[in-house]
Model the fold of this input.
Amino acid sequence: MAEGNFFYYRGFPMVRSGNEIYYGSMGDKFVTKLTIRESETFKDSEMPTKVMVQMVPTKMEPDLLAKAKKGEMSSLYEALDTAYVWLSKELFD
Done:
């Protein structure tokens, strides 16, 4: 689904630049950065096999910096699902 110039996944906007995907809104407290570190070719398509997920605050405030997270996932789906859970917990709880 696209609104304006952004694609949305589970209610959050996504922007891709090369091997980096930014997921979330800069107007919120946090955004996630997904970095595709490795991929394999499958049926003429590149499939990510190692994706770094980082939840970073949009403002450099000490209490928000303490909640920053990162992890490494074995697929883009797993990385997006993790990013969605992290953002939802921080923004809606």
